[in-house]
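Progress against Task 2.4 (sequence-to-structure conversion) is shown through the following example record, which the project officer requested during the mid-term review.
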Amino acid sequence: MMKPTLTVDALPFAFELPPGRTALIVIDMQRDFIEPGGFGAALGNDVSLLQSAIEPTRALLQAWRERGWPVVHTREGHAPDLHDCPPAKRERGKPGLRIGDAGPMGRLLVRGEPGHDIVPALAPLPGEVLIDKPGKGAFYGTALHEALQVRGVTHLVFAGVTTEVCVQTTMREANDRGYDGLLVDEATQSYFPEFKAATLSMVTAQGGIVGWVASLAAVLAAVHPQA
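Structure tokens generated for the chain above:
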């Protein structure tokens, strides 16, 4: 018997969350973006701004894990020989260090290096999907769509960093593939607060042209209706 759909108080209007068919997608909560000495810091960013998304994301993970609902983690990074990192990506801008260069946590954005790991507080558990992606969007060059289809997923709840880059890109990719997506406000962050605010507005504009946005409290209230 199909479980009744849960309703999340969201913008631009309520988000219908089908239990068991809604995956939590945690985007790029990696040491390279969140901790000092990683790629984010090499770009000149204040990485401490992203740390506020850790605890809200952990609360979402706990809720999904308690119910046995699908969980997906993504990591952005490249092969050690950088064959999957186009020059246009590696050479852009004037960072202190570039992708593949050696930093305090190993080579930046290279798979297998310490900085590529997800922060310990949000480490994947056995059985959860882990997607290594070479680009900003989690569907590009990966088997994410197939992994979701096998699990019968139709709806996605998003957390992660950064809001305006990898999170928004993945939401747009998901929208084009027929998924309904909800972004949890407190569980996403940017190095630029104004970019996060603009992204939330873009996602929900024009009747939710990209998707929905809700607070952590609203999501947890729907998931824990007795609370």
